[in-house]
């Protein structure tokens, strides 16, 4: 089964027996362990940036555990700290949590699994924080391209093209499915150009009738048609010196296509009903979700206008062709809508991220945005889980079915294989537990796996058994790490 990276743990305790015992427990789980019997030395060791979790005793000479906790948090606030004490009281626990501790363990340990499980949960929380920080850093980098978000090779190519064409005055044609962000690309080009201080005017050409579209684009004079009660400037005049974005250019009627061609050729517009043209200096960026080349061949789009528009073409890939961008986009929308709703929603669970990444996203980025907004509104937890997503996301794919193979066919091979294996392993563990009446020990024996390792697998794949009931830890909902496959 899949191997996951083990957290590096620092254990600090002046009791050599406890120090050795905790070290052995954690090493059996595969964690690299640094064991130190002096609190002052422990503070120095905690500065190591590779340390993920610290387990320390409260009662130690030279420097108390509480002082050590505060010192570690001052130096490494991202490190998760677990306190150990033989004198547990409510006051001690509250003080430790206020000082930044993740949890505390009472000595002597009633169950050694409690130690490994608590460390595992702390490590998962640390991993989630690391993953969130990495996504936020990636989102910061994308700010140079306005609201365009992506780290896939396809989007990097788009960013490079945007950077190049922004400094020219050439007409740009943006092609892509609905919801891929064509207007965002147009805005990125405009605001990186020398026209950035001039107007950016966007118009949806498919939303208006022919008469209204011509009036909107070119303006009209009083009495030119019913309802024209006065002279009106068109959007081309309004965009003078700047950029006009003609969305869904493929839906423009033939007569309007002729007038658009004149603007591109002569740099002038004639208001509806007017005799004299008006000069305009406007850069045209057009966009469409249809194949203009085919429309041209079918006689639905003027050939001369097509070549005028198609000077530089930017093809926006659908979201299903760049699944590695899903976590970055999901995190961006999570922050956006959590802020708008004034809710503390800080992350997305591995299962939910897996479901998001597997989806084909026929509505592209716009659909993903709607799904995350809905999840933020509905969730009562700090981490979005599968149950917060729409019903279609909540049924795990069947790894051995043709249905799942089809659902993963849009992903790169390595990522599709990893997701399919995760689905199989989760289903295998669930079936094994069901066959053994939800008894973890019996299921572990049937699987031929050591009980502690079997419990770790159940945790990893978020499958719960009857005898697997660790006590609820603080902020438990945060302790989920977005899957590595999606990065």
UniProtKB/TrEMBL annotation:
PANTHER family listed in its UniProt record: ALGINATE BIOSYNTHESIS TRANSCRIPTIONAL REGULATORY PROTEIN ALGB, TRANSCRIPTIONAL REGULATORY PROTEIN
Molecular-function GO term, any one: ATP binding
Domain Response regulatory residue range list: 8-122
Organism: Myxococcus stipitatus (strain DSM 14675 / JCM 12634 / Mx s8)
Protein name: DNA-binding response regulator
A cellular component term, taken from the record's GO annotations: cytoplasm
Superkingdom as given in the UniProt entry: Bacteria
GO BP terms: phosphorelay signal transduction system; regulation of DNA-templated transcription
4-aspartylphosphate carried by residues: 57
Keywords assigned by UniProt, alphabetized: Activator, ATP-binding, Cytoplasm, DNA-binding, Nucleotide-binding, Phosphoprotein, Transcription, Transcription regulation, Two-component regulatory system
InterPro entries registered for this protein in UniProt: AAA+_ATPase, AAA_lid_NorR, CheY-like_superfamily, Homeodomain-like_sf, P-loop_NTPase, Sig_transdc_resp-reg_receiver, Sigma_54_int, Sigma_54_int_dom_ATP-bd_1
Domain Sigma-54 factor interaction: 148-377
Cellular compartment(s): Cytoplasm
Alphabetical list of SMART domains matching this protein: AAA (SM00382), REC (SM00448)
């Amino acid at each position: 089964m899949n191997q996951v990276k083990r957290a590096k743990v620092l254990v600090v305790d002046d009791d050599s027996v406890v120090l050795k015992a905790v070290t052995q427990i954690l090493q059996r789980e595969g964690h690299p362990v640094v064991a130190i019997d002096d609190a002052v030395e422990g503070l120095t060791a905690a500065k190591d940036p590779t340390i993920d979790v610290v387990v320390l005793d409260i009662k130690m000479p030279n420097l108390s555990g509480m002082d050590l906790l505060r010192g570690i948090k001052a130096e490494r606030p991202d490190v998760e700290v677990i306190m150990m004490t033989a004198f547990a009281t409510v006051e001690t626990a509250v003080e430790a949590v206020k000082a930044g501790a993740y949890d505390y363990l009472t000595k002597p340990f009633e169950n050694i699994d409690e130690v490994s499980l608590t460390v595992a949960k702390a490590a998962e929380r640390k991993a989630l924080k690391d993953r969130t920080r990495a996504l936020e850093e990636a989102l910061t980098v994308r700010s140079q391209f306005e609201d365009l978000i992506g780290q896939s090779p396809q989007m990097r190519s788009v960013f490079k093209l945007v950077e190049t064409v922004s400094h020219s005055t050439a007409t740009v044609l943006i092609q892509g499915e609905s919801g891929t962000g064509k207007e965002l690309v147009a805005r990125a080009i405009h605001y990186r150009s020398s026209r950035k201080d001039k107007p950016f005017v966007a118009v949806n050409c498919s939303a208006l009738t022919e008469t209204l579209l011509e009036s909107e684009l070119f303006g009209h004079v009083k009495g030119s048609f019913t309802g024209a009660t006065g002279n009106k400037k068109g959007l081309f005049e309004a965009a003078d010196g700047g950029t006009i974005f003609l969305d869904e250019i493929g839906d423009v009627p033939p007569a309007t296509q002729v007038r658009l061609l004149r603007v591109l050729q002569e740099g002038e517009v004639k208001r509806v009903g007017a005799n004299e043209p008006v000069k305009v200096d406007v850069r045209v960026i057009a966009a469409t979700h249809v194949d203009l080349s085919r429309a041209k061949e079918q006689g639905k789009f003027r050939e001369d206008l097509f070549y005028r528009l198609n000077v530089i073409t930017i093809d926006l890939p659908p979201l299903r062709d760049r699944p590695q961008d899903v976590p970055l986009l999901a995190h961006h929308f999570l922050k956006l809508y959590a802020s708008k709703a004034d809710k503390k929603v800080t992350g997305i669970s591995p299962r939910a991220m897996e479901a998001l990444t597997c989806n084909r996203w026929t509505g592209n980025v716009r659909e993903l945005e709607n799904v995350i907004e809905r999840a933020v509104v509905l969730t009562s937890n700090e981490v979005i889980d599968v149950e917060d997503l729409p019903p279609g996301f909540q049924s795990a794919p069947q790894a051995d079915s043709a249905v799942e193979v089809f659902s993963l066919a849009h992903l790169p091979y390595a990522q599709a294989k990893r997701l399919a294996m995760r689905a199989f392993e989760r289903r295998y563990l669930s079936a094994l537990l069901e066959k053994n009446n939800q008894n973890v020990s019996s299921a572990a024996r049937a699987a031929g796996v050591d009980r502690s390792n079997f419990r770790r697998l159940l945790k990893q794949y978020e499958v719960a058994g009857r005898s697997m009931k660790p006590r609820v830890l603080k902020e438990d909902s945060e302790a989920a790490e977005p899957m590595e496959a999606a990065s």
